[in-house]
Every structure is written in C-alpha cells, then in structure tokens.
Write a structure and sequence with these properties.
The structure is a homodimer. The first copy, chain A, contains eleven helices and twelve strands. By secondary structure, chain A is an alpha/beta fold. At the A-B interface, helix 4 of A face helix 4 of B. The structure holds a DNA duplex.
DNA sequence: TAAAAATACTCCATAGGTATTTTAT
DNA sequence: ATAAAATACCTATGGAGTATTTTTA
C-alpha cells in the first residue's frame, strides 16, 4: 500500500531534484530514500523520476503523480491542523478578509484582546470589497472574512455577530443637526455623500433610505469613511456611517453632529463567512466570540 | 506520522462500530487494530471513538476526523486508479453522460468497438439534458459527458471530436422534397417541428435557422428525435435532425425525403467535457479516439 | 459473568543505516 | 575519474500475532 512517507520523499526530490539533498531534507539516508522511491514507483507501476549519475528529471506522468501527492499531503496536514485547532483554537495563522468599512474600526478592538486571550494567534489580514473577499473565501485563498450583510454568499457559511444602525453625520448648525433622531423623509432634503461603487455600505445606505441609485450620484464619491467625514467637515454635504465607526470618526471633531437614523431594523449585520468544509472552524468560532464580547461593550454606551 | 493504514482501520470501525469485525474486514487481528487506533488517536490528540465493553460510539469530533480521512483515502485511491489508467485506459468504470440527441445514435457505433478494443471497459451511462450533465460533471457525479456545442461549460475541459450538419426531413411529395439542398429561406415556409424546451438541439436548430424563439412554438413539441420523425410521418410537419441520427431514423421509412440544410458552418459540434483535474483523463482520451474513428466512417458516405 | 477492548509479550517484516558497487559522463 | 544513484547487507523499530487481563453493563 502507498504510504504517506513515500509521498513526502517524492515531493522532497521534486523540490531538490537531487536524491542526497532530498534525503537530508527528510532526515534519512540517501539509500533509504532511494529504496523508498523505487518501492513507490513499483507500487504505482509508473516512473516518476528519470535519474542518472548527473541529473534527476521528472517524467510527464510523474508531474501528475506529484501533483496528486501534494494534494494528498495537504489534506493530511489539514487533518493535523484541524486536530490541533480543536484543542487549541488559532494554533495556525488564519487568513482573514475584512471590508474597508469594518477593518479599521473593529481591528483596534479585536487585536489587543485576541493577543491577550490567544497569544499564539496570528491573523493574515486582507482588506477588500465584499465580492472579492467572497471569491477568495470560495477559492480557499482566505479562510474566512468579515462582511456586512445582506450580501449574496451562496454556498458559504455565515455567522452573524453584530447588528448595527446607521448614524447621520452633519455639521452643527445645519438643519436637523440638533435632533435626537432623523427620519428617511427628513434625509431627502440633505445632500448625502456616499462611498463609490463597489462598497457594500453604499448599497446598504441606499436600501435603508429607500432611495434609488440615481438620486445619490455625487460628483465626488469617496473610497473611505474617513474621506467622507473630511468632506462633511469641508461643508460638501452630509453622510451616513455605521455605529461601529462613529466613535473613531467623530470623537475628535467637535463641529460635527451625529444623529441616529430612525428607520426600523438593524441597518446592516456583520458576519463571518467561510467554506462549509473549512476544517479549522474552531479558530473562527474563537474569533467570533471575541468579536461578540468586544462589540457588546460598544452597545452598552 | 499519521499513516494511511490507520485511516483505513478507523473507517472500518466507523462502518462496523465493532473492533473485532473491523479487524476482520482489514485482515488483521483485533489487537493490531486496537493498538493502531490508539496510536492514531494519540498522534492527533483527539478521541475518535468512545468504546466500552458493549458498544462503540463515534465522538462528534471523530465524525469530522473520519470525514477528512475518507476524503484522503479517496484521493489515494484516485492516485492508484490514475496510475493504472495510464498503463491501461478504461481500467475502471467511467461514469459518462450523454444528451438524448446523441446517445441512441452514437452508442451502437461506440459500444461494440469499445468492447473489442478494451474488453475490460465499463461505462456507467446517464442520459440527460446538457445543463444537468454539466452540473453532474462539475460535482464529480460524472467523470465525463458528451455534449453538443455551443453550450456554456465554463471551467470545464472540452474535447471536440465531431462536427456535423443538420438535415431536413419531410414527406416525399411535399414542396422542396426532391431538392439536393434546402436553404434557410425555403425553410421559412415549412412547418418546423422542434424538440421541447431544454434540449440543446432546439436551440442549435433555431440558431442555425436564424429564427426567433416565438416563430417556432409548436403545440406538440416532442422530447425525442424519434417522436419528431413519427410526427413527420403523420403529416404534422417537417423537422431538422443531425447527421449522426439520419441513418437510424430514416433508413426504414421510404416515404421520407432527407435534404441537406444548406447553411454554412458545422451546425453543431460533439465534444467530451470533463473537470480539468480529473485524473483518469487517459480513459477519456481512449474513448475519444474510438469515437473519432467510428464517426470518420460515417463521414465517408 | 460475559462480551469486548486493552495490554503483555513475542516475532518478524521492513524501514532505515553503513558500506560498497554500478553507471554514465 | 567522479559524482550520484542503486544495491548488498545489517540492525532495530514497530506492526501484527497469540494469549491474557481489564472493564463495565
């Protein structure tokens, strides 16, 4: 029967194209590696390597065998990582994506606590728009991502952890600026600045405002919430931002007024997404818990 | 290091839920199996089975481990099958799909030759419409399928093996019936009977006739070419059939006239499709060769 | 007490080591 | 002549067997 060791040895030779060097990589003797590979080739009945005294070549069919071997070993490794992660979440780096309207606001809350609770945790962070993150999660390029729902994620697992409303940001002294709440109707008279196309927040804002797309095409449309705030400060208009971003974006600007948008229902929901058969699910659960707890503090204010 | 044997043993226990029976399935002693599984559990650091003197239970985490083990063993088996198939195409049953406008006409040509050239060959045949076959190939439910192109198969490999034109079938004595060729324009005056929705042939016929969909909605729309021919025989109209089907469908009906449709270009192309990383590609190649050769005879007539 | 898994103990197959030979430049 | 893989031969680990013990329903 084919063994995993044989496959490991074969991949080492593929990498080094040299039996002696490969044997050293595997911490065995040249002879052991040689016999193991001869045995593997005998078992599958195909020559993987063409070797003489000077060089090692990979046969065309050998390339395909090695490709499959690599895939098998990846899965074995995944099994090992799964097991480790069950005992100890976040034992291995987690590749995570975040959207631009979440990343800078959640990471400062998340990372310090994560470092304390899971000192070994390492996140490989990617910031991109929702549709790109969804694709990367599907391809396995990312292990998970934090999106704002609603967003189409067919075939993916979604784990919601936070619901939030939008807040209207305007300069003090403008109409409605002193109100406790602002309604959809009142908003219609305001010049609403939006993120540019491709940012899900734009769609969520339009949807919660019951506005059609055309109404809101601004000549300057920003690519970050921070830019939007700067535009508001510059007197170009007003904007809507999610609760999670309110404090960081508005705390230092005393000239701004922040008013809760009085439209029913959570205006967007943050959720982790992942492939249903991702094996290190426990790591995502651990992250999820930390996020839930940290955001609970926010809600209490 | 985890070994493949350990995984095999674990799956045997999953199946039997009994160490003794599992050990017999694996042709080893109960003791050998017991120590092997204890060793596996120790290596991954997780309990897969909960056992006492009366019963064996699978732990929740064990279920996930076994799922991954199964997937690994499937891939190992695939590697073995790949190797065997390289040396001997069609060593293992090939799950193949065919569309209804191809299956009954190509199989009688293909199967006898296949049996002679590859006596060990076994085909598991499924007949369905193109979109269903494409989905099954994508899912791995089928190894390959024979479709008529054009048809959207993004992400799949396509291997064309035959191009053919359409032939117009009508009762002798009707207008145009004695012609050598018939054109698009002349066809417009004919009552054209089509297969019902979902058969790619309908779309190909409409496309090669430059007709819009509406023009051709028949109150009876058939689900097989044979039915169409019966309808023509019954005087309900005329129809177009692909070259591959001409002989079988019209040879015994002396009252029918068969006229080549004189529109440029091959009217449809038959092709195998498969997942790009399907490992027993050599089997498909072998089939492809047989198809090409057998259809070459047809073309010579 | 009985059925089943775990363990003790033994054995042998085989993975792996060392030393040597073969092979092709 | 030399560099590298294959082979011969030996050793030791560990996989697997038999017999026995432990466990708990």
């Amino acid at each position: 029967m084919i063994s995993i060791k044989q496959l490991v040895y074969a991949l080492a030779v593929e990498e080094t194209l040299h039996f002696k060097k490969a044997s050293e990589k595997c911490n065995i003797s040249q002879s052991a590696l040689s016999t193991a590979l001869n045995e593997l080739e005998k078992q599958i009945g195909l020559q993987i390597f063409e070797r003489d005294n000077k060089k090692v070549l990979i046969t065309p069919v050998g390339k395909q065998v090695l490709q499959q071997a690599r895939s098998i070993l990846l899965q074995v490794e995944e099994l090992q990582h799964f097991a480790d992660t069950q005992k100890n979440p976040l034992s291995y780096p987690l590749k995570i994506g975040l959207i631009p309207t979440v990343a800078p606001y959640i990471l400062p809350k998340l990372l310090p606590v994560l470092n304390k609770r899971y000192p070994q945790a390492r996140l490989d962070i990617v910031e991109s728009q929702s549709h790109i993150l969804v694709e990367k999660v599907r391809q396995g390029e990312l292990d998970t991502a934090i999106l704002a729902l609603p967003f189409s994620c067919e075939g993916l697992l979604t784990l919601k952890f936070w619901e939030e409303d939008f807040y209207w940001v305007t300069l003090k002294g403008t109409q409605h600026a002193q109100q406790e709440e602002i309604t959809n109707i009142e908003l219609k008279s305001c010049n609403l600045l939006l993120l540019k196309e491709g940012h899900c927040l734009k769609d969520h804002v339009l949807s919660v405002c019951n506005r059609s797309d055309q109404l809101s095409h601004q000549s300057f449309s920003a690519s970050s919430l921070n830019t939007l705030i700067q535009m508001v400060l510059g007197g170009l208009g007003t904007t809507l931002i999610p609760e999670i971003a309110v404090e960081q974006l508005t705390a230092q600007h005393t000239s701004l007024s922040v008013v809760h948008l009085n439209e029913p229902g959570p205006h967007r929901r943050l959720a982790f997404i992942s492939r249903p058969n991702f094996t290190r699910f426990s790591s995502i659960e651990a992250l999820l818990e930390v996020c839930k707890e940290e955001l609970r503090h926010l809600q209490k204010n």
